[in-house]
Write a structure and sequence with these properties.
The structure is a homodimer. Chain A contains 19 helices and 25 strands. The radius of gyration of chain A is 26 Å and the shape is globular. Chain A is of the alpha+beta class. In chain A, strand 20, helix 14 and strand 21 form a beta-alpha-beta unit. Chain A has a seven-stranded mixed sheet, with helices on both faces. In chain A, strands 7-15-14-13-8 form a five-stranded mixed sheet, with helices on both faces. A four-stranded mixed sheet of chain A has the order 18-23-24-25, with helices on both faces. Chains A and B meet through helix 6, strand 19, strand 20, helix 16 and strand 22 of A and helix 6, strand 19, strand 20, helix 16 and strand 22 of B.
Chain lengths: 747, 747
């Protein structure tokens, strides 16, 4: 980083509050989302979905549908039989079911028509004959039964309903547990929830006879690019994927989805552009939201409160397809081992197929549920020893430049400042235990990754590339494959050239997420974008900066500097930079799923009030401190903290994405019945930024988009316990649950 | 160039027939032209145009227009007073007239409304009060009168109606004329014509509060970028210009046009996107078509037929604004000095303002008219000596690697092969003079530029930049600022990476003409694009080729080669290349307007039949040979030759863009009255490609889009003379003119 002032306009953009550069377009309605796109002669497509949770497809009859005026084309699964999936080792999805359906809502057929209503009417006329199979609605049952296989196509080595089981142990767990002064042992259940993005999934395809172009509301254009190539049997060099402005994703647009393949194939069959927009109901069925988890934890503390042993057994209810589930099974165990030092650790996580809508990554993927369980168990164990919840967390601080029990290398670590920050801001010392019955404070901490060491498919190429071009007008264009799904990467990608080159950030044009226009970036998941694209952008800018410095002073007008450098170079000024995993240095211990180049840390204190008569309760306030390394744009970091806390608090309060076990229908497939917090349900949130200036991150930055979600739920649970003395172990915490617990305690 | 076969798929794309890569989209209706674009909340704007050829604006009253429901905003000239023009030294236009109007159709005001019809109705309600001024309709009168100044704002140094006068002499012209064995001396008149593109001018602007984006049907996005910045008072770093697919231009979209500024300002005033589409009538008034020229030529030959002296005086009827007129005045003289050696040469060209729609560049800009006059005069002089028309041209061949009389350096020169080619193909030797009265053959030759040595505004930067990016899928993206206006540069920009890198040309994505996405290219004019962008693209590709060759064999699959090279480089593979004027080598004699790095050459033989009873005549066939250096894609070259011959023949046969002198109204401001040849009016065309393999051009290529237009008109005139013995010197050659000439000859 340059020193401020000395160097023209350089070095003043990073760390400044700047509004999102696409904010105006969104606020004025000018932003073009996928469904705003129109192409000449465009058709509209709709999906026929399974009405059975588990069944063989006997026959699909399109004859009545084809008779409807305005119907142009139909599509069945056998036309796109190639299996795909975001994880190379669990390719278990098909664009449309071929032999069997695995959940109510599984896509079975598609119809393209002149307008959306006709397509919808035609779908109702498609007759699908099913032969019912036993439906497995509970993951324990699915684990136990081998006579019913949801994915019977997986062959002799997979005569079960496991997506993935991960069993890892670090140190003599049983021995340490036996020696512990205090052991907490409990069962926890984390209910499933869904992302509920404002924008439904939408895709539009155009086929010009040579190249397929797909616009999709996705957060992984690069993987969609690869999946389209595979499923459609087209060279990837003939496929272009463009992500328009996205209206919310939260992990719910991290898989290739049926509609992307269907519009592509229908466009190729008809020679016309084809669009499909999911209804809100379809979004709920397609979702890939938070996995329900059944978790058993044992946490043993020494009499000084040191964490001697953690042992967990987790059954993950995956729904009908794998999605990121293999990773979920790892994350459920691997990401728990900070911010505290674990003496020993063991986990056994099984991700199980059931005949329900498939789960996948939702903000805080895989580790939100275990974090809830562990942070509650930690409180329980500490309570027996009479150690204050903040104090027990402080005593177990893992530190920085250190290795976790499971071999992850932690660089910077601002957790202690986070803890002190929420302790101070909440008035913990003065107020805890003094708020009277029915009101309480709870604390929790957490750690999260800043991207993953592994690319999702093994390769030696950079995980993220950024190209920067300078125009003689002084305009700077940044080409980046990453998806801005609201987190603000496009704004950061304007700040970085401003910081490095001295241009005005508003003179930067960010071209994002278009496989033709932009370099490869793996996508917006695992909180990797700011970290990896940021480093790539800095590298690209510094090459250009050297060219500018060769011919002019940093204080010259920027456009003039570009002109001189372009004249000197005799060619357009363009450069690329990248994030390369393998160059993190000797300290890097990557190599396990869950390992990250840098970890963020959070601590929350929640304050709740509980009416012991009715069980009605509310989260009054959450103090959320987050170590994001360096806040490149504090406004965006605060926005991420607030959004995370909001989402976490919502899961604690009311969210539940569940099916009726008798028929596989969702209980709440719409935004009226699926309850998410309104502004009235949302607590006051204090976003407290802690800067640890990570040595590896871009200007010291780490992630901020997912980490701050984690502690909200256990902090609330611990606060409820503090308020009324009951320990809730099942999410969401309904007034009925509280009343029941209070009653049980009284018995 | 690489040898075929030896080097994988390299070296096999250039020279092959390949169809235009945007052809499918155009043919299926999927191509998105400017008027196909729709943005949320978009308004439609229309222009109020002058009804007077020359008048002061006394008052503009919008009050009635503003009352019309649906009218959102109005715009008057005083809001955009800054003058602009494509040539830096003749900035004489304003987006909307401020003080006075200079031709019927001059834009005076604009209205934005919810729909196009309302905007049109509102325009009719805008009251403009004029104070009439004398209108100058004839260039000679305009030259003579200094009491009426069309551009009175130009100050004390411009007390005349001259846009530009160029007088240059090379050698003792009068002395050589006096010594000549044969002198032809005649007056010629070349009527004005217009481009008549299928797509009318259209522009759409969006203002997000920071950046202005303008989509425009232009062939000069870079100059529009600069002009918008100047006129709107915005930093060029806050302006983005995008050229969508263009439906024909031919030079008629080479100026910044009023609508581009009006939609921009209206978008900024309203905060909403604003679109304007010219009606067909407006296209005729706005045009910038072929200048009418009055030309007097004296051509003196030695008794052997050598061109001893050429003397010309040219009055160019410019219309109301300069447009490219300064260049027109140079081109009218400078571009005549090949393919023949001139002993001495003098020209005096005056480009004059008149109160008519402004003229500018049309295919073959500036030199089509003098070429007609000179090639007729050459025939006339040779006839007196009894020298065959082809023979006199052969004897005067200027040669290659030589300098013209006016100091232009000619590299390759395939004119002799062109001449032989049409002589052979037309059966000239066997058939000329043997077709009977009423049928004849005529020949003509010409030379044209492959781009200009000068950029239009003086600067040291490249005239053209190309960026190439390689994706690990094997897809190649070429970013180029040049405009594909139908000539096929986007197709060549796919062939070049295929040639250099060995990819499939259909795996190349060409991103064109977007000032944010693409490097600067000066635009599609002066036949510069293939030459300059081609060289830039080769340079960019060869840098990448070196990276691929470092890690793999040319015969490896292309995507694998990219993967390996990306892994080795550790970053996205991207490079830029450029065309730099100054590095053409020691032989280059640039420095005068009209100088080019390489010249194309053409020869045509036309066959006509004339009915001496009625004067009705037709062009039966044209053999057109063109030296394009190297035909990078023979199909495209033939298309350019055919299009040129068609357009030239049309100008000879029927085209006339003229006004009623009494009121300044166009005689034919629509495609019914303005006559252009239909397929029935079009002669059989034999496109004969001659390859001289220019040492400086990309793979040896020179221009092909404008040169082959030139000889068509004089070849036809000479053929009419051969058929019926009359010499027509005024275009177009109407049956009435022929009858009159035949009658005069009989007298």
């Amino acid at each position: 980083m340059t020193e401020e002032g000395k160097d023209g306009r350089r070095g003043v953009s990073i760390g400044r509050r700047q509004r999102k550069n696409e904010g105006r377009l969104k606020a004025t309605g000018a932003a073009m989302y996928a469904d705003d796109l129109r192409l000449p002669r465009m058709l509209f497509a709709k999906t026929v979905r399974s009405t059975e949770p588990h069944a063989r497809i006997v026959r699909i009859d399109f004859s009545e549908a084809k008779k409807l005026p305005g119907v142009i084309e139909t599509l069945a699964g056998h036309e796109l039989p190639e299996r795909y999936g975001v994880i190379p080792w669990t390719q278990d999805e098909q664009a449309l079911c071929v032999d069997k359906v695995r959940f109510v809502g599984d896509p079975v057929a598609a119809v393209a028509a002149l307008d959306e209503r006709t397509a919808e009417e035609a779908c109702a006329l498609v007759r699908v004959e099913y032969e019912k199979l036993p439906a497995l609605m509970d993951p324990d049952e699915a684990l136990a039964r081998t006579d019913v296989l949801i994915h019977d196509e997986r062959g002799a080595n997979h005569q079960d309903n496991l997506t993935k089981r991960v069993q890892l142990a670090f140190g003599p767990v049983d021995e340490k547990l036996a020696q512990s002064a205090s052991i907490a042992e409990a069962d926890f259940f984390y209910e499933g929830s869904t992302h509920a993005p404002i924008e439904p999934h939408c895709a539009l395809a155009q086929w010009d006879g040579v190249t397929l172009t797909v616009w999709s509301s996705t957060q992984i254009p690069h993987y969609v690019h690869r999946a389209l190539s595979k499923v459609l049997g087209l060279s990837a060099a003939r496929v272009r994927v463009i992500q328009p402005v996205v209206g919310g994703a939260f992990g719910g647009k991290s898989d290739p989805f049926s509609l992307e393949f269907c519009v592509a194939k229908l466009a190729m069959k008809t020679g016309r552009p084809v669009k499909m927009l999911y209804t809100r109901e379809e979004v709920f069925y397609a979702h890939r939201g938070r996995h329900p988890m059944k978790m058993r934890y044992r946490v043993g503390l020494s009499k000084e409160g040191a964490i001697e042993a953690v042992d967990s057994k987790i059954v993950i209810d995956g729904g009908a397809y794998a999605s990121f589930g293999l990773v979920t099974a790892y994350y459920a165990g691997q990401l728990l081992t900070g911010p505290y030092r674990f003496g020993t650790y063991r986990f056994d996580a099984a991700r199980v197929y059931t005949n329900k809508p498939p789960c996948g990554p939702k903000r805080g993927h895989g580790s939100v549920q275990p974090r809830f369980a562990f942070e509650c168990a930690l409180d329980m164990a500490a309570e027996k020893l009479g150690i204050d919840p903040i104090e027990v967390r402080r005593r177990n601080f893992v530190g920085e430049n250190t290795e976790t029990v499971n071999g992850q290398w932690i660089t910077s670590n601002g957790f202690m400042q986070c803890l002190e920050s929420v302790e101070r801001a909440s008035g913990w010392r003065e107020r805890r235990g003094k708020l009277g019955f029915g009101r309480g404070l709870g604390v929790a901490g957490s750690m999260y990754i800043s991207g993953t060491a592994y690319p999702v498919y093994p390769n030696q190429m950079p995980q993220s590339g950024v190209v920067v071009k300078l125009d003689r007008s002084g305009r700077v264009t940044v080409y980046c494959g990453a998806s801005d799904i609201g987190q603000g990467i496009n704004t950061l990608l304007a700040q970085i050239p401003a910081e490095e080159l001295g241009c005005d950030p508003e003179d930067v044009s960010v071209v994002a997420a278009d496989t033709d226009l932009t370099p490869v970036d793996l996508g917006a998941y695992s909180s990797r974008v700011t970290y990896m694209c940021g480093l790539a952008a800095i590298e690209a800018c510094r090459k250009l900066r050297a060219q500018l410095d060769e011919v002019s002073e940093a204080t010259d007008p920027f456009a003039l500097r570009v002109e001189k450098a372009e004249a000197k170079a005799g060619t357009t000024l363009v450069s690329s930079g990248a994030y390369r995993t393998q160059k993190l240095g000797a300290d890097y211990r990557g190599g396990t799923i869950g390992a990250s180049p840098a970890y963020s840390f959070s601590a929350h204190v929640a304050q709740v009030s509980v009416d012991a008569e009715t069980g009605l309760w509310k989260v009054e306030r959450i103090w959320a401190a987050h170590d994001c390394g360096k806040a490149l744009n504090p406004t965006l970091v605060e926005g991420q903290i607030e959004g995370s806390v909001y989402m976490g608090a919502g899961e604690a309060q009311m969210e539940a994405h569940t099916v009726y076990p008798e028929n596989g229908l969702l209980r709440a497939p719409n935004l009226l019945d699926y309850r998410i917090p309104t502004s009235l349900d949302t607590p006051e949130i204090d976003s407290l930024i802690v800067e640890s200036n990570d040595p590896s991150g871009p200007y010291g930055a780490k992630e901020a988009g997912e980490g701050p979600l984690h502690p909200a739920i256990p902090a609330i649970a611990n606060a409820i316990h503090d308020a009324v003395g009951v320990r809730l172990t099942r999410l969401p915490f309904s007034p009925g649950d509280i009343l029941r617990a209070l009653r049980e305690r009284k018995c």
